[in-house]
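Show me any protein, keeping tokens residue-aligned.
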Amino acid sequence: MNFPRYIYNTVVITALGIIFNVLLSSLTAYPLAAALTFLNGQFSYNFGWIAAGTMISVLPIIIVFLFTQRYYMEGIAGAIKG
């Protein structure tokens, strides 16, 4: 008999939730994108800090894209061309 898929999914999701709660127990362990949500207060919104954090998190992606842009465009053109 096969192990029912819904039981497997429930076990995996619960285990991942427990692991994330243990590993991310402090704010310093959060990834930058998730930590940016903690800059929003109940009555305040620090736009400068959030904008700076967003730029810091996006900058490596932009740099990698600039170096690999030629290959990216060749792949897109090949996919469209058929």
Notes: The chain is about 70% helix and 0% strand.
